């Protein structure tokens, strides 16, 4: 990832953290800039001029990175594979736990924030997971997604054990098994 991309992700995560901790849109652009060690002009240039615009841009940036939909994240995935991507996501969740809480808090809301979350999730599950892993139906995708999400958020287990489990779940053998379970999972 480039320095600008890392900075954009850090600032975006900081925006979501500030929104979660200080209250919805009660944060200031000056506070975000100070905490992220960037200028307000930098935030205006890359994320927008108003809090709502900055919040939505930040959310989309974070979701695209965490779900490997941004061009930089796609390149990372190509270079490091599914297991490398899983480890990167786990590291991001450990570094920015507030982002997960923010997404969970707003995922079902009927406002623009909830819509961005649902839209990114829909793109991720329908296009990315089904294309990358050849899964046939929404139940297979939901099954794999649930396992991977559980592993990414399982901070009570030692990292080597979780990484080994991720190796098994993201292996070709497991994915073939999962694809073969399509009819069974569709009946659930």
In short:
80% of the residues lie in helices and 0% in strands.
What features would you describe in this structure?
The protein is mainly α and 188 residues long. It contains 11 helices and no strands. It has helices spanning 3-22, 29-36, 40-47, 51-66, 71-95, 97-106, 112-133, 138-152, 159-169, 172-180, 182-187.
Structural class: mainly alpha
- List SSEs in N-to-C order: HHHHHHHHHHH
| Beta strands, count | 0
What do the pLDDT scores average to?
A: 82
The helical percent reads over 70%
Strand-residue proportion: under 5%
Quaternary class: single chain
Cα radius of gyration in angstroms: 18 Å
Number of helices: 11
Task: State the end-to-end CA separation.
Answer: 40 Å
Low-confidence stretches: none
Largest sheet: none
Task: Kindly list the characteristics that best describe this protein.
single chain, 188 residues, mainly alpha, 11 helices, elongated
Which secondary structure elements does this structure contain, and how are they paired or packed?
Blueprint: H1 3-22, H2 29-36, H3 40-47, H4 51-66, H5 71-95, H6 97-106, H7 112-133, H8 138-152, H9 159-169, H10 172-180, H11 182-187
């Amino acid at each position: 990832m480039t320095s600008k991309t890392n900075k954009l992700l850090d600032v975006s995560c900081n925006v979501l953290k500030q929104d979660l901790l200080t209250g919805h849109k009660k944060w200031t652009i000056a506070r975000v800039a100070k905490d992220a060690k960037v200028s307000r002009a930098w935030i205006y240039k890359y994320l927008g001029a108003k809090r709502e615009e900055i919040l939505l841009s930040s959310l989309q940036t974070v979701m695209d990175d965490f779900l490997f939909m941004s061009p930089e994240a796609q390149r990372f995935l190509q270079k490091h594979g599914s297991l490398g991507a899983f480890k990167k996501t786990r590291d991001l969740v450990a570094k920015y736990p507030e982002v997960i809480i923010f997404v969970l808090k707003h995922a079902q809301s009927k406002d623009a924030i909830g819509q961005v979350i649902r839209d990114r999730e829909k793109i991720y599950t329908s296009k990315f997971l089904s294309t990358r892993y050849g899964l046939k139906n929404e139940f297979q995708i939901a099954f794999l997604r649930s396992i991977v999400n559980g592993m990414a958020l399982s901070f009570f287990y030692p990292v080597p054990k979780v990484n080994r489990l991720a190796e098994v779940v993201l292996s070709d053998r497991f994915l073939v098994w999962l694809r073969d379970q399509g009819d069974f999972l569709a009946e659930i």
